[in-house]
Amino acid sequence: MNIIFMLIAASLLIAVLFFVLFVKSVKSGQYDDTYTPSVRMLFDDELVKQKKSEPKNNQ
Amino acid sequence: MNKEQFYYDNKIVKMFLIATVLWGVVGMLVGLIVAFLFIFPNLLEGIPWLSFGRIRPLHTNAVIFAFVGNSIFMGIYYSMQRLLKTRMFSDALSKIHFWGWQLIIVAAALTLPFGITSSKEYAELEWPIDIAITVIWVIMGINMIGTILKRRQRHIYVAIWFYLATLITVAVLHIFNNLELPVSAFKSYSIYAGVQDALVQWWYGHNAVAFFLTTPVLGLMYYFVPKVANRPVYSYRLSIIHFWSLIFIYIWAGPHHLLYTALPEWAQNLGTVFSVMLIFPSWGGMINGLLTLRGAWDKVRENPILKFFVVAITGYGMSTFEGPMLSFKNLNAIAHYTDWIIAHVHVGALAWNGFMAAGIIYWLSGKLWKTELYSKKLANIHFWLGTLGILFYALPLYIAGFTQAAMWKQFNPDGTLVYGNFLETVTQIMPMYMMRAFGGTLYLVGFLLLAYNVIQTARAGSAVEDELAEAAPLKEISSSRLAGEGFHSWLERRTILFSLLVVVAIAIGGAIEIIPLLTVDSNIPKITSVKPYTPLELEGRDIYIREGCNNCHSQMIRPFRSEVERYGEYSKAGEFVYDFPFLWGSRRTGPDVHRVGGKYNDNWHFNHMMDPRSTSPGSIMPQYPWLIKDDLDISLTASKVNAMVKLGVPYTQFELDKAVYLLKNQAMEVEKNLRQDPEFVKNYGDANIQEKEIVAMIAYLQRLGTDIKAEPTE
Fold this sequence. Notes:
A: 59 residues, B: mainly alpha, Cytochrome Bc1 Complex, Chain D, domain 2, 3% strand
């Protein structure tokens, strides 16, 4: 059952890594803007309407 | 502000949409045929390529890789271009991806019904198709990464992260699980044996669910639910947490498919712990999806697309609640090998995958053909038919699973089994099978309405193949802005680095679980009496694989009193060391066969294969008359034995040189045995049975699980 120590070590390693990343990102202001991206994706850049009216405008 | 004009590729999205609808109909239709085979086992009597064991893998592969696969690509190609404000990297690669994937599906449909299979669940396709999948997957990867590199939007939205995790993880899983040694163009052996093969397979099998049916669809959820509801996701922050925690935990959960089997206990426990932890990211994601509709539930009443999404996300929540629960050993002891699991996966497949796909298809139909959906009413009818279909499918099977498991474990006061005859536990749940088929029919009819609705929408609208769009080009980041930058936003801009990190995370998880088993000898105790299969048994085993017997029969007796009483001594890890691939199975539609060797005589097996109901009244097993008609193909026997030697099976030089001679000798013995029955001589006396496939099958079945009886274990 020696393998269990390896598992605990590996799990701890990942847990510690996560914790470090979390603290680091919070302190560096990473989560200051966790809103804009969620709104930005709602806007369309398609020019559908313009495309439909193109013939009228150009000719 | 200077803006660039460019075109989105709508044509590729449309192609994937059509493929999704087409394969959806095919996959569900095959599923329905499979469901009816439970009720009418003689329905397709004597047609080898429509036999249950061959088309059940066709159903699962068609639904997972053809239906859900194409629906994922449809959503990815639509959302990626818009989130990154750029056309896909290469139209040519997009087209190769599309046609390559469709060809792979056709290849699957042309091989699985003919018994060309590796037997590993959801990885049944043989090695040439495996290579094709790898190539097409890499092409898709280049196209995706290329698109990310030429993006006009620096921030990478959370949906794309989910797509990337899928891209990388599926590649790794697919390659590891399909490492096999080819014997011919259509036959190969897994390079792992027994317990190790089982662990790799379920590491793959579980993560195929995780990274093919879950993460990409979560990505789609994070794009399409906000888009359709026209409101931002409930919490973008939660979506980031959701993503990271999910990918790190998912990869460890595979062993919960092998609880109470011959897998070392620490590996089982590891799987359980991580499976239970999974509920947090899963439910976080579900809540995030549902709460996106907060304050907008009136829209759900109006909009059938949102109805589909709500049921889909609820289905995701239900199956991800059930998953961790089923990973507890005590609940798993009841549910494993029963229809409970079939119900569980269908809540995921029909509700989560099927309804997400349906919602996205309806929404995209309007967008792609620049028109309103042909009929909102039909979409609503589809929604209700589908929802009722899911209920009629899942609920009876939950009851069936629980009923059967309870009957399997029922003891008389004198210590004998109440339902000693396995068939009693099958006939008991036949009404549930009928209701399941009814539920499946409802679901398929609903989906056909979708197909009709999409066709009518396409006819009414006009397709815009290249859609003009406008966005500002990507600005160079000034060094002053980078000065105080956080690690995460730095990371977000580095896709390739990010991808590598994901690989590392997965590699750690996979390596820790798999490598010790491959290298640490003590994990699989040697049993000296376990010997390699004879050439005839090896051929019989390959027929067992070809007919897909493992779809209904397990070869893994768990160490429970009820199972030892019913089947015999529980299975030991050391008994499977020559099993390339392992054939433990995952469902007991029929009884376990690991100790079937010597239980019946050869004639019983002969008659049982010819007509299962002649020996076992009420059985729902298909007939296998072709095993008695067709000659055993021995052209590959020598190379099969040779392949086994390469994989480390200790055949002697004599066995290697005289494989065919040994095979024929043993076949003659089997026929001699069969001829002891005057009934057999009367009916088949003139047929040269020793040259037929049935002889190999009988030899293999009679060998199963007998080695351990020769001597006590070391």
